[in-house]
Inverse folding.
């Protein structure tokens, strides 16, 4: 294992460089009998595909997925699902000049130090194209979650300084603007801001928020494999993410316990707040959700809320100071086709990593109690 | 595996409940030949021990560690190191009243839903005492890091709304105040704030920051096991942590690429900025460190910077609304001995988890290149 | 991980040296709600305890187990179960003379080469006492298997050249002789043989056979984690085991396909052969079981059959040629209390490792199909 | 994880069915800088390719490998190496009749029971073609072992009842006969035997032996991840293998300790026996090697010896009794292109699995001692 696998029971292994023959993922441990087609996966890949709007790279690749194994007559067989996306628009010439330089904000320097040399063509394994494997796996995980009534929704909460406050959320608008923001007005302002950055040969970052509904209570394990801990690994492992928070996140530091604790209530029928579960004919719920749906590292049945901070695209056309591979001072001006902000295309990547994490924990959680073991094996 | 293990080569497995016979950890994979004594471990445990100041629980336990295996004649043998801390001050009677209630902000509800019932004595496995195993392991990891010239320092950057800005850091003052803040003046203000909360039967949270120096470049793997991703899991897995960020963290979302990128420079002798590595007689360094020492998921040789948001202690004496295990609405008033803020005692826990993560990645990184493999096996 | 853990979902981690403070195991992932007491575990440990007969070492230890965590009010809680057995009869003086020599057939030489030095007191981590952790875990696994109607039986099929043929098996006699052989007559002959070896200051080996009944079909995964592959690791990992075979084992090499294949039959009610499963009111079964209950790496519902070859105890009182830690030629005469044959005490160790392997695969197998996932989560 | 991955640091994940688009493997953790080409891998695949002799299936596939990632300018980059072999000669029609039957000796029944249905085309994931991924990975592992001076040699020790005794080994003849036996005369006899079985529409098994030289002492970990334990899993996980033994294997059961122990000797220069290591200018060696190169689960520096029992090909043209998927009794006559004995083609599979296991343990062993850690990181 060199860090290219994630998950225990629903386990994904990704591979591939931006300028090699292709990118792919092997999903081992998906339960047998799940309906799955290439269309299910392609729909996810299309959401991260370049060339969707004026704010994304013009690199033009169809990123068509091929299912190489694990699906027979439209259903998963329980064996590894191997997915392949061939690289098409490689244009190695675009990247020739950076072979001997360390680009600021990129992995060139650290890759070289770790491995002794690097595939200098377009970032190699550190390219954003690495996320194709994540998204393809996320599509399969989401297909599984759908069978269990779980839905995930991700969107751009902020682009640069333009933030949509929760009171202004219109989820239906997420798909109406090319930035995937839950408010078309803010999206328009953010779009103008991006345009001005593009003229200035600069870039910006943002915040992606993701919510999940329909989770059973109890997902996650109480110590190192807490639901929030594994989500944090999953999302922080996406290139450019520099922070992850759950529920109120960093705001909790200035809150009081009496504010931050979400009180429990119960009613015969849930009439308000977030349903957290039912018991003996009554619905237990919380009127607030500062915890973001996680207590003690386990899902509490209410809405899961996670935010990720995404840094500005490091590839900018503005001239920057750097050193070359012989440690000589020099300057670098990065040409080529780069997104001025990666947040819109990273939305589906965050959603995918969360889907993969939840799928794995749903399977692991099945073995938590003797009565469930007996239920599966039909024992009294 | 049910989530009680962490790490691949330097792998720790913790166990134990707050009111059972004891708490412990097994460390498997610590290299042979490391000098190690019970004193090395006890020094770390004493930093998280209750009863250190008026701001911590009065629960009085010596938390003495016993080395049960893996050390012979003062050195590690390469076999598993088993560490045991017996519980002493259990006072089960303190907790009897909460057996049938779900405490807001605690894991009572989720634990019950996951496992069907729970050890209701003081939180059981979800108690803060669970961190004893983490800290004991962290002491061993730190002993290993010390041999490699790596140092870690953690402290309370903020307690409630009282934050120490970087310009006001005085690292020497961290050990001078019982809140482990890098500024005695702010610590005093924060202390007064805590006292007022205690009178109000309430609690607060804060922010813990941790820095590490002396890391070689290249720690961490490029995809799922990025250094920042594993640190995020490690730190988010600590109870009460609701957010983790690296370097500029959430601030990157409003930054521009030209600001956020840390330029590389080189000089024959390093005269400024943070040294990131040397090559061909020249030192490569960065004058800024927005990245917090990590590029592309791998350490870049500069200072590692991580922050964690800690929520207010959920156990408060103020009366709260909740439900009982029969889903009936009721109220709860939590008596007993609880920290009004857990940040000071959690400082060493964060430091320990980071030490354990780094120790593991240092070992994994040894196999990254063929020339290192040959070096170890004395092959030409 | 340095090889002290086994299993994925039902995961055990053992620790401890023969002459340190104690030996133990942490079991992570045992489902919550399993009735478990120290008596359940002690019963297993008593079967491997020294001093049971004239053929076992006179080292006298009660090997009393203490449950340190994971059990509350007589049931497992789902959290790690930590078990501790303190060492009592350490007598370090017995082993002083071997500190500077490499005992033939022992791990002294390899341990020294791997770790640079070794705990020379009685084998340290390579002592037979290491199996205490395995047996304690095996007791817990067996308790789980019992709930699912699975039974395991192990016995000594051969001691030295004295072998019990299958036609002569009397399972009831296994507990009637101190060698755990399924035939008292052969056991008596073997006993006399052992006595003669003891006089000759020599030792012998044997073959342990283990059968398991009641397994559902489908345990094990089709490629690397085949049921037989994991059993092979589990059993070969027991010190002194030099071979493992399933069903007809090595005899298959000289068999023909038409002989070796076990034909399938079905009847409305099973009237003969080994029941392999039922379908549509009919029982599918095999009249032969050359396969030993495993097809394609998965249990087929018929009896599991495994055999392990155990080498002669390497500690013998006869003088042997060896070298010391300075590579000088010398002789060694091993005094102390050693079993002339470890087979009888290893019977419960083999049974335990098989129980642990099966418990883990039973849990993993729960997630193999979408319909089982839906069943657990009550989805239509 | 559903059992399609093997290894910890040098970790392989295989995928693919016999009649799907292709078969492949992802190797994660191969050190950077290893020279590697498609020719290196193709040479291994050609050794298991069908159609090599009259004793192998006439299914005609070139099994050409494509490197999809992880290699740049002829050297491994440290990132995952993805290898793909497209299936060509699928002829689904050959297998149509077996869709509704359970073939004796095959995984049809168990696969159906585990997953609820199966890819009935030629065994799907349980086909012998699954080993393509193992062999491709074995080629890469062998390339790494070669850099460290380690050589592996596998051959057919027995085909049916025709066994080559050690005294009659002529290693040079292994490549001279199509059965890969170390004695051409015995190979001719075995060939005639196979021809007679083919006429009788039957099949046979055999024994594969594998030796490895040049191993450093200390590979393997002392408890569950013993070298022999992991080799046992690796080799037993190959379809059709029913037994694994090390060194004297099952013969140890009838041996005496004084015979079975391999004495140590030392000489200023090694003049006989098997060199086990050197120390202070003297060579430590063993004149015998009953242990097969492993003591206490760790390599002792002498020759590694392993044998695997391979069952007769279950696909035979002779009519057999079986049941269909509705549990009705019926007969089956398997047509198609099947090897009368799989031993010759399995030789390279055994060799590959041993190479993969050794590569992983070589990497893991690098972190066993503090002095090695310091050596890699250039610390005093």
């Amino acid at each position: 294992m060199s860090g290219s696998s994630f998950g225990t029971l629903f386990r994904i292994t990704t591979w591939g460089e931006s300028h090699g023959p292709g990118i792919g993922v092997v999903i081992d441990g998906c339960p047998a009998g799940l309906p799955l087609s290439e269309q299910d996966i392609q729909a996810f890949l299309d959401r991260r595909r370049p060339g969707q709007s004026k704010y994304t790279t013009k690199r033009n690749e169809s990123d068509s997925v091929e299912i190489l194994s694990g699906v027979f007559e439209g259903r998963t067989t329980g064996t590894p699902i191997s997915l392949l996306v061939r690289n098409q628009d490689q244009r190695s010439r675009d990247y020739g000049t950076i072979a001997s330089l360390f680009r600021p904000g990129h992995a060139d320097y650290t890759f070289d130090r770790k491995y002794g040399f690097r595939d200098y063509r377009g970032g190699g394994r550190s390219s954003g194209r690495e996320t194709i494997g994540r998204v393809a796996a996320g599509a399969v995980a989401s297909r599984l979650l759908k069978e269990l009534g779980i839905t995930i929704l991700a969107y751009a909460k902020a682009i640069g300084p333009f933030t949509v406050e929760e009171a202004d959320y219109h989820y239906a608008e997420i798909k109406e603007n090319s930035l995937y923001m839950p408010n078309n007005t803010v999206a328009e302002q953010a779009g103008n801001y991006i345009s001005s950055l593009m003229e200035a040969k600069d870039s910006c970052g943002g915040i992606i928020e993701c919510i999940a509904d329909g989770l059973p209570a109890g997902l996650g394990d109480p110590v190192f494999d807490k639901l929030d801990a594994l989500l944090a690994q999953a999302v922080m492992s996406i290139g450019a993410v520099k922070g992850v928070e759950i529920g109120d996140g960093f705001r909790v530091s200035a809150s009081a316990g009496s504010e931050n604790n979400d009180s429990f209530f119960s009613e015969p029928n849930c009439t308000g707040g977030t349903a957290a579960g039912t018991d003996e004919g009554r619905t237990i719920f919380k009127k607030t959700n500062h915890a973001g749906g996680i207590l003690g590292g386990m899902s509490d049945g209410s809405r899961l809320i996670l935010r990720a901070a995404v840094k500005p695209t490091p590839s900018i056309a503005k001239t920057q100071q750097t050193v070359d591979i012989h440690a000589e001072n020099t300057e670098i001006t990065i040409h080529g086709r780069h997104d001025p902000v990666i947040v819109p295309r990273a939305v589906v990547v965050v959603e995918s990593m969360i889907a993969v994490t939840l799928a794995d924990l749903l399977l692991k959680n099945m073995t938590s109690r003797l009565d469930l073991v007996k239920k599966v094996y039909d024992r009294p």
Summary: The helical segments of chain D are 38-48, 108-115, 131-147, 184-199, 227-236, 257-260, 343-365, 370-376. The first strand of chain D starts at residue 5 and ends at 6. Chain D touches chain C through 121 residues (CB under 8 Å).
